[in-house]
Design goal:
Blueprint lengths: L9 H7 L12 E2 L2 H10 L7 E5 L5 H8 L4 E6 L5 H10 L4 E5 L15 E6 L5 H9 L8 E9 H8 L9 H9 E9 L4 E2 L6 E8 L9 H13 L5 H4 L7 H8 L12 H13 L3
Parallel strand pairs: 2-3, 2-5, 3-4, 5-6
Antiparallel strand pairs: 1-8, 6-9, 7-9
């Protein structure tokens, strides 16, 4: 394995600092520095951007980001055991890496970052989806970040890029594709990690659009999509009844079949329904 910097191999770092991955923290450490450099390159223009990384662990992706020339990296790590290893990286890249020992769900990183901002992370499995939804649903759009380059379990990645009619299509696909261009850029086998997860992982790259593909009030769209897919086996007239007792007539007026199921409905129709509910409240 080619070295990307003068720091020790990750297996050696993990052994030196006794960094066994904790299942309770959703940790799976990516060991191959060539792969971390590929993920960093997939994020685009790093020398011109600050980068937010969540859950760096022993710093494999952190090193990839810095080696690829990131202007500055802010790494948020909940596990204090990882801090000495990250401090060694900070020393090797003076002034380029700031590490905050905190829960990413409880901190506002914007105080520490200067736009343009990219988010690049091998997200801990137990908080990955929640963080993604937060990044996709700010009150103001465009967001403070220009791109998200994120690693998930492959099945989650497939849900983000899924199209109508597929089993993977649902809330994540709609929220992501409403405001972003989303694509899978890399798939990784379990053996690339320690401990190896049971399934493949994949890296998704999301580029923020200047404005959403179709107009819709964000919170109303979230409500509609959540209600539709929480009962995805039901017809829309039943799944959405909690939003409006006259939902069937509303759907018919909008040209949406009340007997259709959520996975058959495209983004444009969901946005139209959200707008109609907002403007013509029951």
């Amino acid at each position: 394995m080619a070295q990307i910097d003068n720091l020790p191999p990750l297996r050696e770092v993990i052994a030196t600092h006794d960094l066994q991955a904790k299942k309770s923290l959703g940790q799976n450490f990516l060991l191959d520095l060539n792969l971390t450099a590929r993920i960093a390159r997939a994020a685009g223009d790093l020398p011109g951007s600050d980068v937010l990384e969540v859950g760096p662990g022993p710093g494999g992706l952190t090193r990839g980001l810095l080696a690829e020339g990131a202007r500055r990296v802010l790494a948020i790590e909940k596990d204090a055991r990882c801090l000495p290893a990250l401090a060694e990286i900070a020393a090797a890249y003076p002034g380029k890496l700031e590490v905050i020992n905190a829960d990413a769900l409880e901190i506002n990183p914007l105080d520490h970052l200067t736009p343009p901002i990219k988010v690049v992370a091998n997200l801990p499995y137990n908080v990955g989806t929640e963080l993604l939804v937060r990044w996709l649903t700010p009150e103001v759009w465009p967001p403070v970040w220009s791109t998200l380059t994120l690693m998930f379990q492959k099945e989650v990645a497939e849900r983000i890029v899924a199209k109508p009619g597929s089993k993977a299509y649902g809330r994540l696909a709609l929220l992501a594709q409403w405001r972003c261009e989303a694509k899978i850029v890399l798939t990784l086998p379990p053996g690339a990690f320690t401990p190896p997860p049971k399934i493949d992982s994949a890296v998704v790259h999301l580029k923020a659009l200047p404005e959403p593909r179709f107009p819709a009030p964000a919170k109303q769209l979230e409500r509609v999509v959540a209600a539709a897919f929480n009962q995805r086996r039901k017809m829309l007239r039943a799944a959405l009844k909690g939003l409006d007792k006259n939902i069937e007539a509303r759907l018919e007026r909008l040209g949406i079949a009340p007997t259709a199921r959520a996975e058959e409905i495209g983004l444009e129709d969901f946005c139209a329904l959200a707008r109609d509910l907002q403007q013509n409240r029951p």
